[in-house]
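anyone seen this seq b4? input:
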Amino acid sequence: QVQLVETGGQLVQAGGSLRLSCAVSGRTISTLSMGWFRQAPGKEREFVTTIVWTGDSTYYADSVKGRFTISRDNAKNTVILQMNSLKPEDTAVYYCAAFRPRDFSGSVYYPESYHYWGQGTQVIVSS
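predicted toks r here
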């Protein structure tokens, strides 16, 4: 059974940085495409970023381009989201997600394309 556990969310001031981690168990992350979504209060879950299973392609929402970076630590079977220059509008619960490439359909930008989800970690950016 594949499990995803996010850590690293906390309160941070605007302009600051945070590093979120997603520890994966039950499957090697090199066989999964891994992503991050976020959901702010009263809003729908939105795409943040994805790294494909080969590790050679990444996708970012326009709102985070140039500020957020997704990476993988294959040795630790962990996916990292480095968030810099944080803004109050980045406040949300951040979810780690993964899909099996062989079973993929739809778009990396759509939550319904992902097969596995973590429980989320809260990020609050104060102004």
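The chain is about 0% helix and 45% strand. The longest strand covers residues 18-25. kinda curious what u guys think
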